[in-house]
């Protein structure tokens, strides 16, 4: 029967590639899925991805203490990674000690804010995200999730091992303007920090003070059309951690 033959050849194919080996095995690595309907906006974790204030990238973070090559029944790797590495989320405990002590970790973040309709906007390339810039973006009330694409994307900063402090981010007045004049609860940016280097901590404080806004940093926004999408971001459920790597995708409406 046709069906049985198909199943048999599938089993043979799996057996052949698993046991006999196949030199032509090429794993798919995609940025876009389902004919352009799903965009992966997460950066790939690899040793030469940039780390804050480091010129050497994140370095080795994966080891293989148990491997089939040296007799284990399976390959089992281990990783060690700062929680604010690559595409990641900040919880309120990141910059507020009393929130940290009270347990406002990544496990306490609202998944509803991290998942839903989101606007991808282009920030004028000649400026940091100031109050003036926020005004000109005229993001309508009712928009709760915004991903800000900036000069960082054009400069491909996340693809450069060396940290660059001249990245674009929010100034304090820009952060304040967003908090006071919009309904935005999810702020996504395209480099390691939502705050520009000169306002590193003050801008974070403005955003995280009320514990209503979630910050997602180092998003990969290349080649994604501006406009409305559905965003889906899921942090690891790390109890006690004020940050976590996060997988984010955009789905076209
Ligand atoms: C097994 O091999 C890996 C590298 O493939 C090495 O890191 C690890 O230490 C080895 N473990 C033992 C028990 O030899
Ligand atoms: C891990 O397992 C595969 C077989 O599934 C084997 O080909 C490979 O060599 C192993 N890796 C290491 C580092 O031992
Ligand atoms: C943004 O601010 C940083 C310092 O925080 C500065 O180095 C950079 O030149 C500014 N970028 C733009 C486009 O104004």
Automatic annotation (TrEMBL):
Entries under InterPro entries matching the protein: KFase/CYL, KFase_sf
Subcellular location(s) of the protein: Secreted, Extracellular space, Extracellular matrix
The UniProt record lists the keyword Metal-binding: no
Similarity section: Belongs to the Cyclase 1 superfamily.
Protein keywords: Extracellular matrix, Secreted, Signal
Protein name per the record: Cyclase
GO molecular function: arylformamidase activity
């Amino acid at each position: 029967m046709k069906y049985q033959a198909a199943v048999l050849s599938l089993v043979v194919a799996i057996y052949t590639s698993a046991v006999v080996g196949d030199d032509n095995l090429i794993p798919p690595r995609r940025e876009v899925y389902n004919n352009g309907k799903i965009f992966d906006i997460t950066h790939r974790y690899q040793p030469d991805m940039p780390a804050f204030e480091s010129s050497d990238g994140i370095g080795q973070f994966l080891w293989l203490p148990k491997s089939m090559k040296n007799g284990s029944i399976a390959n089992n790797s281990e990783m060690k990674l700062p929680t604010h590495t690559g595409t990641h989320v900040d919880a309120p405990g990141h910059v507020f000690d009393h929130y940290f002590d009270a347990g406002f970790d990544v496990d306490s973040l609202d998944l509803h804010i991290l998942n839903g309709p989101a606007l991808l906007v282009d920030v004028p390339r000649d400026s940091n995200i100031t109050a003036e810039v926020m005004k000109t973006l005229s993001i309508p009330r009712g928009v709760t999730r915004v991903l800000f694409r900036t000069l960082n994307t054009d400069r491909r900063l996340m693809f450069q091992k060396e940290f660059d402090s001249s990245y674009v981010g929010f100034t304090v007045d820009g952060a304040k303007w967003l908090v006071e004049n919009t309904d935005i609860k999810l702020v996504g940016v395209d480099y390691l920090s939502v705050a520009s280097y000169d306002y590193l901590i003050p801008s974070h404080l403005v955003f995280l003070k009320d514990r209503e806004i979630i910050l997602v940093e180092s998003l990969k926004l290349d080649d994604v059309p501006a406009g409305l999408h559905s965003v889906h971001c899921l942090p690891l459920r790390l109890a006690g951690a004020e940050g976590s790597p996060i997988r984010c995708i955009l789905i076209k409406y």
